[in-house]
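Protocol step 4 of 6: structure prediction from sequence.
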Amino acid sequence: MISVAAKSDMTDAALFKPPVFNLQPPDPRLANWLKKYPPSVFSERLYQSIELMERYSIDLAIDLIGQLDVIDQLGEWRSARKLCQALSFQPHFSSALGWLLERLIETGCIEARTHGDTRSYRLRRAPWRPELARRPGDSWRAAAGQGVQAPYQQSGPGAADAPNRRS
């Protein structure tokens, strides 16, 4: 059962705006680590693309977790396996679900703990509403100064289907 506070947080999820995408220059130590490689291999454009994809993957994870109703189950500590059971997902989906949850830890929305071999997750605060509802690439092109192509966004039949739920 989800706590009243967590349910209230989810009701207010639309109030949280995504953090502004503020592309920082690469860590100065990076140049030293990559000095044995040709400069064209690890260019500024590649760095910017990686940063954009990182942000996109976090927003996509937030969106998927929301569509799968996982957030509503995180009022108490639960492992990916327990979440799969609670949501009637196939057990083999737990590794993918764990990966999605791990993506959200760095946002501060979810916290994790490990007890023995079990990693469990709990909601700290509602995540922001991802900006994936816009036309594919709008916010990403703007953030990249229109110089970097938008990351791939899947669309069409089955794009938003939940993992095979058990009947």
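Step 5 (inspection) to follow. The first strand starts at residue 78 and ends at 79.
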